Amino acid sequence: GALLKLDFFTHSYPHDWRTKKPVIYRATPQWFASIDKFRQNILDEIEKVDWIIPWGKTRLYNMIRDRGDWVISRQRAWGVPLPIFYAENGEAIITPETIEHVANLFAEHGSTIWFEKEAEELLPAGFTHPGSPNGKFSKETDIMDVWFDSGSSHEAVLRQRPELTFPADMYLEGSDQYRGWFNSSITTSVAINEVAPYKAVLSQGFTLDGEGRKMSKSLGNTIAPEKVIKQMGADILRLWVSSVDYESDVRVSMDILNQVSEVYRKIRNTMRFLLANTNDFDPAKDTVAFEDLRSVDQYMMVRLHQTIKTIREDGYDKYNFLHIYRTVINFLTVDMSSFYLDFAKDVVYIEGQNDFQRRAMQTVFYQTAVALTKLLTPIIPHTAEEIWSYLKEEDDYVQLAELPGYQVFANQAELLDQWSAFLDFRDNVLKALEEARNAKLIGKSFEAKVTVYPSEPVATLLKAIDSDVPQLLIISPDFFEVAEAGTAVPEDAYVFEDVAILVEKAEGEVCERCRQMRKDVGSHDHLPTLCGHCAEIVEENYPEAVAEGFEK
User: Fold this and answer.
1) pLDDT tens digits, one per residue of 135-170
2) Residue 519: which pLDDT band, with cuts at 50, 70 and 90?
3) Bridge-partner residues for 453, per DSSP?
4) How many CB atoms sit inside 10 A of residue 349's CB?
5) Burial class (CB in 10 A: 0-12, 13-18, 19+), 322
6) Which tens digit of pLDDT belongs to each residue from 72-113?
7) Bridge partners of residue 92, in order along the sequence
8) Which end of the chain has fewer beta carbons closer than 10 Å to its terminal beta carbon, N or C?
9) Which CATH architecture has domain 412-505?
10) Cα Rg of the chain, angstroms
11) CA–CA separation, 278 vs 270, rounded Å?
C-alpha cells in the first residue's frame, strides 16, 4: 500500500462562462432532429448562395456534411416550449393535430400560455389517447434550442410580412454564426421550403481591445461607443470601422482611434481646401469641358473616375470597406495632396479669377469634391452632409443623391502612360532639389535654377506635355532649362537612370505676390515689387487699385 509518487498538474476543464465555476456534464434524455434525409439538399443549396467571405462557404459546408442529429431540446426555465405532451404511460404525443392546436393558441395568446395552463387545457377539446385511459396528460418542460427558434425567423418574419421577400437578400452576422444562425436557418428552410433562406451571407469578426484580448467588463477593457462619439464624433467611429478588415477579429483602443482621427483630419482638410477654392466657381457656367482641359487636368479627371470605379465595383459592390478606405486615402494623399494640390495654389491663388487655367483646375476641384462627398456618405455621413451644404448641387441632401458614375475617356491610356512617366521624372527632380536643400544650396524650390539633361524619351516627354512644366515642379519658369538630348552632363549634376538634373542657386528677385524668383521683378512702373506676370494680372483685374495705390 505504499505510495510511490504524488504529483499535481494543471489541465483544462469546462467552466460556466458566467459564474466561472467548474461544471459537471451528465447524460439526460433529449429531443433530436435528424437531417439525414435532406442533408444533401442543404449542401446543394449552400453551393447556390453568394458567400461574401469565401471561406464561410467551406466552413458551413463541412459543418453540415459532418454533423450528426440536431439536439433541439434545452433544460432551461423559460423559452419557446416544445409542443410535446405525454400520456399516462409516458408515451410522447406529437401529432399534426396537437401541434396545429398549440400553434393557434400561441398565435392568439403568446407562447407564455404553455406555462400558464395545464396540459389538458392545451390539448384539443375532447382529445383522447390510448396511453391515457384516465384522460390525464402532462406537458414537456424542456424548451426549444434557441437556434431552432431564431433559425425559423425566415418563416416568422419574411413569410409573415408582405413588404418583405423570401429568400432574404442577405444574412449579416458575426463569424460565430456559421455554427449558429446561418446553420440553423438553412437547415430549417431547406427542410420545409427546399431552398436556402438567403441569397448571400456576410460575416464579420469580433472587436478586441488594443492588445488583442476579448473585451469584457470584468477585465475593464471595454470602450463605450457613446464615449467615443461624445469625445470624437460618430464619424470617427464609422471611419475606424471602414479602416479594419472585418473578415477577422479587429482591435480597437483610444490610441487606434486617435490615429484614425488623424486620417479623418486629412480628409476634412483636403475637402476644405477644395471647397475654399471653388467658392467663386459656378458649375453651371464656369465648368470647362474635358476635351478643353489641360493635359494635367485631364489626367486628374481620369484618376478621379478610376477611383470612383474602384470604390464602387471593388468596394461597395463587394462590401469591401477597407478597400474603399485605402483607395480614398491613396487618392487624396498621392494624387491630390502630393501632386495636384501641391502646385494648385500657384494657379488658383495667383491667376485672375476667370483665367482659363484657374477655371480648368476649379472644374477638377469641384467634380472631385462632389464625387468624394457622395462616395464617403455611407461611411462619414455627418461630415458628408456638412460638405454638401457648401456645394452647388440640386439635391438638398447628399443622402438623396445617387452615387457618382464613371467613364473611360478616349485618350485615357495615353494620358496614364504619359503622366506616369512624367511623375517618375518629377520624382527625380524633387530628389535633386532635396539634395540641394540639404547641401544648403537653396532654401525653397523657387530659389533653384534647374537644368535638365534628358535622354531621348524624357526629351520627347517634356515636349509632349502641354502643361507648364516649371509650374508642375514648383520652380520658377525663368530658371528652368531643358538641354538638348546628348548634351554633356556637368560633373555636379545629379544623375538618374534616364535624366540628369543640375541644381544651382537662382539669381533674381522674389515677387511679393507669387513668391517666385523672377528676372523681371520691378519692370512695372506702378508695381515695382511684382514680377511682370503678376503685374499684368493685378493691372487687368484691379485697375482702380493700381491707379489709386494699394496703400488706400
Assistant:
1) 999 999 999 999 998 999 999 999 999 999 999 999
2) very high
3) 500
4) 12
5) middle
6) 999 988 889 999 999 999 999 999 999 999 999 999 999 999
7) 86
8) N
9) 2-Layer Sandwich (3.30)
10) 36
11) 13
Domain ranges of the chain: 32-203, 207-257, 268-400, 412-505, 508-552
**Cβ proximity of 263 and 329 under 8 Å:** yes
Q: What is the pLDDT of residues 113-126, one digit of tens each?
A: 999 999 999 999 98
Residue type at position 314: D
Contact indicator for 255, 346 with CB cutoff of 8 Å? no
pLDDT band at 300 (very low <50, low <70, confident <90, very high): very high
CATH entry 1.10.730.10 includes domain 268-400: yes
Distance CA(91)–CA(98), nearest Å, equals 14
Q: How far apart are CA 547 and CA 552, in angstroms?
A: 10
For residue 294, which of 359, 207, 338 has the smallest C-alpha distance? 359
pTM of the complete model: 0.84
Identify the three-state secondary structure at position 163.
Answer: coil
Q: 211 pLDDT band (50/70/90 cuts)?
A: confident
For 32-203, CATH number? 3.40.50.620
Handedness of CA 101, 106, 108, 112 (dihedral sign): positive
Q: How far apart (Å, rounded) are the C-alpha atoms in residues 196 and 200?
A: 10
Distance CA 34, CA 276 (A): 67
How confident is residue 550, by pLDDT bands cut at 50, 70 and 90?
Answer: low
